[in-house]
Structures are given as C-alpha cells and as structure tokens.
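Reading a protein record of the kind used here takes little practice once its layout is understood. The reader may check this reading against the record printed directly beneath this paragraph.
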Amino acid sequence: MTKPYVSYTAKNAICTLAGQVKFNTYVEGVAIGTIKHGDQNYTPDETIRGLSAGTNHFVLLDKQGCIITELDITITQDSCEPVTFFNTFTPNGDGVNDLFRPNQSSNPIAYKLTVFNRLGQRLFESESIYDGWNGNYNGKPVPTGVYYWMCNYTMGDGQVEVQKGHVTLLR
C-alpha cells in the first residue's frame, strides 16, 4: 500500500526563528482530525511552530483517531549572516573590490543603503544588496576620499537594524 499524498507548507528556521509547518485539512479526501508531533496534538487548521532544524516526525489521524499516514519533514536552518561592510574600496575597473556593497552571503528581507559625501549630499541609494556604489555620481567619478553611508535592513527573523559608517574610496 502506498502512502497517501500529503500537502503542506513548510518554513525553514532562520536566524532566531524556528521552523513551522501547516498541513492542508484533507489528505486524498479524508479529513484530518488531529496531527501529532512528539507528545503534542494539533488541530488541522493550526500552524505548527517551534520546529527545530532536522527531521520532524508527524502522525496524521482522521476524526475517529485512526492513522491516515505518518511522514517526516525536514526543516533546514537558513543562513542568517549579518550584513557587514568593508571600510575601503577601489573602483578602478580591475574586477576586485570595485563596488561598495555589503557581504553577498547575508540575506536581509528588506534593505536600503545610502551613500553621502562630507556635505551630506546623497550620492547613491539602493534597495538591493547586489547593487553597489561604483564611486560615481551623475555618471562621473568622485574624488578619492572618505564617504559616509547608512544602511537600514530587516533580517528574516524581523529584526530591524541600522548601521552607519564611513568608507574610503581609493583610485
């Protein structure tokens, strides 16, 4: 006998947030009565939260308490590397350190970087960690010097961060 198809939506653990699973209320036309995970019972319309990374075992029961199926769902721990910046960049076209932008291994869900000159004039703004400042303003290279930046971002766990600093542009 083959196991029935079970439809569910899972969210992996990220940062300090644990994973979660939400099952559809029917398994191949049979209404789910209870979902067991560990020693806890859940209703079919409940989102099961607090799941740790790894394999999580679930038992789905019908309304009479008979087992419909058992299944294992793997929750992974998604990366939550903080947003960090270097303090120097060299936009000289050699393909190395040509853009001022954060580490590309961070994964904020909302992000905004603004770069200013010493007079407070906005030179660059981006809402993507993949876009970086190339040391130009209005299509022309700015001089070697120190520039100021501010970055607002939200990580996957909802934590809002604001960073400020300065970057030295070397030509």
